[in-house]
Amino acid sequence: MDSLTPRHDWTNEQIEQLFALPMNDLLFRAHSVHRQVFNPNEVQVSRLLSIKTGACPEDCKYCPQSARYNTGLEKERLMEVERVLEEANKAKQSGATRFCMGAAWRNPNARDMPYILDMIKGVKGMGMETCMTLGMLDGEQAKELAEAGLDYYNHNLDTGPEFYGDIITTRTYGDRMDTLQNVRDAGMKVCSGGIVGMGEQPKDRVGLLQALANMERQPESVPINMLVKVAGTPLDSVDDLDPLEFVRTIAVARIVMPRSRVRLSAGREGMTDEMQAMCFFAGANSIFYGCKLLTTENPEESDDMQLFKRLGLTPAAGDPVPLENVARQLADATPDPRFYNAG
Ligand code: SAM
Ligand code: DTB
Ligand code: SF4
Q1: Going by CA atoms, what residue is nearest to atom 1 of ligand 2?
Q2: What distance in angstroms lies between residue 106's CA and the mean position of ligand 3's atoms?
Q3: What is the distance between the alpha carbons of residues 263 and 246, in angstroms, rounded to a whole number?
Q4: Residue-wise pLDDT tens digits, 32-47
Q5: What is the pLDDT of residue 317?
């Protein structure tokens, strides 16, 4: 099987071996895959909005929005549909192609669904891709969201299965898999990834990428978050992860999920331009743009514009190129300007 076709039989050992490659070999391999599937100079840009903030009943140890930790966060009720659409319009003006709406819920409840569905219809009507992250979904809710026009649903595995119980006790790994299956069955695209730098072992990063890659269909979008340490959460003083280990995680994600968009997600505010440049070379090709994530800081828009300029990057429209186009391109002597691997 060629390296551009997703495989679903990755073993722990194979993924460990990728992590253990000399850095230059790992980066070369990841980037070779990357530029055969994607234009390496395009980065997809999403805008994030917290539509319901704080007071979450779950106990995710990394999260400033859990009601169990005292983080000083001001809680907010579900935002009015009109305000959400105003924010979406601003996002569109600033060049975002996808609008992601996040709520600090264990799961959406019936009373909130009509508002959620109106938000989806409104944002979709503006011509942007829509994404939501609302917690666990049952099959019926997933169908309703899909019918309203939701393109992506974000639901992270967060970490490897062995470390998971150290981080969250209020829902299981299996619960997460069930939600992702409901999203798939409803015909939506899956956005699922995790967080590194939570004090996990290298084998847990391997376990996370293995669980994502070996799904029946790999997620179309894979956010890799660097933990944002928020005072008052149980992980607020965990040791920093070696930045090069983060870059390795991106590179391995690119190799094992060759056709997915890998998002350099939370934590960019703490990264240098040089580190981000390495991540883009290693295969990251999506970011959140705008000075706020859900509740924490993200780089200023003007800083990101400068970063794109320094690196010669341009914002991309959403989806990866279908495999048959790549095969045609590889066989074709005429270089397609979207690819830089010919000749
Ligand atoms: N409540 C919903 C849920 O957890 O499914 C949706 C919102 S939740 C905030 C979305 C994701 O944000 C989490 O799964 C986690 O991966 C990420 N996240 C939350 N806090 C974070 C932090 N401090 N650093 C990095 N990522 C974080
Ligand atoms: C994802 O993987 N990262 C985003 C998005 N999905 C919803 C959220 C990051 C949140 C960082 C902490 C905060 O701002 O509250
Ligand atoms: Fe709640 Fe989501 Fe935060 Fe967990 S990650 S505490 S479910 S908002």
Answers
A1: 223
A2: 7
A3: 12
A4: 999 999 999 999 888 8
A5: 64
